[in-house]
Design goal:
Elements: E1 7-9, E2 16-17, E3 27-28, E4 30-34, H1 41-53, H2 56-64, E5 67-70, H3 77-85, E6 103-105, E7 108-109, H4 155-165, H5 167-176, E8 178-184, H6 197-201, H7 211-222, E9 228-233, E10 243-250, E11 253-255, E12 262-264, H8 268-278, E13 297-298
Parallel strand pairs: 4-5
Antiparallel strand pairs: 1-4, 2-3, 6-7, 8-10, 8-13, 9-10, 11-12
Helix pairs in contact: 1-3, 4-5
């Protein structure tokens, strides 16, 4: 890597060498560290813009898959937002977010507002949607004394491993894809990480809108996802809008747009583990509270 003024290559003890077909010394993640702690956030932003314009960031991501920036000493969500925007990536717009998040700065939000007793299982970000971000930034504002780790796994070697050890599953995944369902109750419990129809799809809804207009605006937002089908349930005088159930049938394997590598890209692992946790892995897929919480299914494309 070319010499830079503020960010330099640095050792990261948790990095691992990626297996073949990656070239030797392909560390995951690669690490850059801020060496000049007297520099300002403006200096860091300028350095990132320089590395992006030169193609260095793109080259590092293509080779290593992820970059860990150490010792940035960002002071706030706003500084993190400035840092992330310096790369020039198009901001992602959430459509149908299944988890509650709190926006803290432009394009910066908490990862999940669910209780800390609820595990977040391995998944690709928005892997159960056709509309997913191309880049994801993580920033830890305050590290806990124990726990809180965010494991990262490169999806291409994972696909190679699964193809070797579970060929029938990967073959079915290639042929059939995966079917997911998400349920958005109008009255979401405060201790739930999930979202209501308005939290997931209410981008254009106004407080003054009548129920029929609210429902039509929510449905218009869902239609922005070309693979989605939906149904309103449990409409009653006490639940005039109704609860919303959305289905999607999507590929479980995708091709990386820059490297051409095939990737295991989906949310089937998280849905499977969540179904085990809820006791809903087998038909009729209902937990002890009567809630329908199935895993995702290898799909024939039918609802």
């Amino acid at each position: 890597m070319a010499t830079v003024d503020i960010l330099r290559p640095a050792h990261y003890e948790r990095s691992v060498d990626l297996p073949a077909p990656y070239p030797p010394s392909s560390q995951f993640p690669y690490s850059l560290s801020r060496t000049d702690q007297t520099s300002s956030i403006g200096d860091v932003v300028s350095e990132i813009k320089k590395l992006t314009a030169s193609g260095e960031i793109r080259s590092l991501l293509n080779k290593h898959g992820a970059i860990c920036f150490q010792n940035l000493n960002l002071k706030s969500a706003d500084e993190f937002s400035q840092f992330a925007h310096a790369f020039g990536f198009a901001p992602h717009e959430d459509i149908g977010n299944p988890v509650r998040r709190t926006v803290l700065a432009p394009n910066v939000a908490t990862a999940n507002e669910g209780p800390n007793t609820m595990p977040i299982f391995p998944h690709n970000e928005f892997g159960l949607s056709p509309h997913f971000p191309s880049y994801v930034f993580f920033y830890c504002a305050e590290a806990p004394e124990t726990g809180g780790e965010t494991p990262l796994n490169p999806s291409s070697p994972l696909l190679a491993h699964l193809t070797t050890h579970h060929p029938a599953f990967i073959s079915s995944l290639r042929r059939l894809g995966l079917k997911y369902q998400l349920f958005h109750p109008s009255h979401q419990p405060t201790n739930s990480p999930g979202t209501t129809p308005l939290q997931a799809y209410g981008r254009t809804v106004l407080d003054t809108d009548p129920i029929d207009i609210i429902r039509s605006k929510v449905e218009a937002e869902i239609r922005r996802l070309p693979t989605a089908k939906w149904e309103w349930e449990n409409i009653s005088p006490d639940n005039q809008l109704g609860d919303l159930r959305v289905w999607q049938v999507l590929p479980g394997i995708r091709t990386h747009p820059h490297t051409g590598e095939e990737m295991f890209f989906n949310n089937c692992v998280s849905r499977f583990l969540n179904a085990i946790r809820e006791g809903t892995l087998e038909h009729p897929y209902r937990n002890g509270r009567g809630e329908y919480i199935p895993p995702c299914f290898v799909s024939f494309g039918r609802r």
